[in-house]
Amino acid sequence: MGDGRLLSTVLSLAEDLDSLSDELHFAGLGLDGHAPLDHGAANVLRALTLPGNAKVLEIGAGLGALTRYLGERADVVHAIEPDEGCAEAVRSRTGELGTVEVFTVDPASFSSDVAYDVVLVAQPYATRGLLDSVRRRLTPHGAVMVTTRSRAVAGTLAAAGLDVVHELLCSPGHEIARSVRSARLDAETPRLAAAIVEEPASGLLLLAGPGAGALWPPDRLATYFNTTDRAAFACTRADVVRTADGAEVRRVPLRPPTTVAGISVGPWTDPVYDAATILEVLLTAPERAGDLLPAWRELLRTEAERGVRALWDLVPHNVVVDGEDLRPIDLEWRHTGAGVAEVTERGVLVLADKLALAGWRGAADGGTTRELAGWLGVLVGLDPSFVDSAVEREIDFATIGSCGAAHGTAEIRAAISEIWHARLERTVHAAGYGRLSDENKEAKP
User: Fold this and answer.
1) Could you tell me the pTM of the whole model?
2) What is the 3-state secondary structure (H, E, C) of 287-354?
3) For residues 166-190, average pLDDT
């Protein structure tokens, strides 16, 4: 059975068909063409401000990832998918909603008396003739969205009387977008752009028509997501918004707040600082470990006294060095069982891991990550033996963040444990400093 048919079978058998379904997300991992089942499959639309009570036409529904998301939010969705097998998968995925009707026809022959507020067109169907037809089907304030890999489609839209209002870059692509952004992000907040855009943009989202401007607010520079390695309860979106003083990041959970074994994510807003994090500073100036780490420990104590709920996330790579001040950023994770002591241990452990994987020249060449963590811990008053308790706590946290459950996760926990313990015993080759290895993405929720 080919993976296309296998994905359709997964959809037909699944109980949870939500656009953030953990069941579909984890069933699709490892399969070729798994994108339609991924948590992030609808991110390209999640980044937009879609009109309420909308009537939507989708041309080229595929396996229905975007159809499902639209059906959860719009009053009416007419989805056209010429392939009968794919169309049946879309029906399986959206039938319970009652808002979606699927048509297995050639888009050129589709007939409807409905005037649409939004029309979504997949690239293969974005021809001049079809776009002419689409323009005539719009309401006076309607908008057309095209997912594509080619800027040439903008010319086709314009020829059909649909000038592009926004050209949004999707990284790594529109199929699973980690970020959706205006090109202005790179010019106005280059440091943040480099942090959130992990891969070049291979996808585009073109917004055209009279209502296109409302889909992407004028003060928004980007929207980015944490949907790749997390269970649905922990998935978040973050809007980068221009303000009178520069820009700020506004982060919110994609689902209503849920606590699993004391762990949750919550909303967080902070300014965009043109400053490096403690991690970034140490990569280029190892000698500053002796002053930055004790200062970070004092910041932890101060924030705890202020009652900051997201203390668990107040680790060195989430603290920027803004002149003489240390400023927390991206504090979204909450952990009810963790106070200053536990977060101090966590921060040193994770910092040591990131520095070791970067080949930090401040480390003893030939030592292990465990030994580096022990040495860094001494700088903030920890006994080197803290590593064992810290890593077990981190494994528990990563397991819950990845699975969304505290029970029935033994296999996942064992895999994460194996990764962490292997990293602790890995030899540090202090050959220099620079970009962090992709291995830093492992063992993270």
Assistant:
1) 0.92
2) HHHHHHHHHHHHHHHHHHHCCCCCHHHCCHHHEEEECCEEEECCCCEEECCCCHHHHHHHHHHHHHHH
3) 96
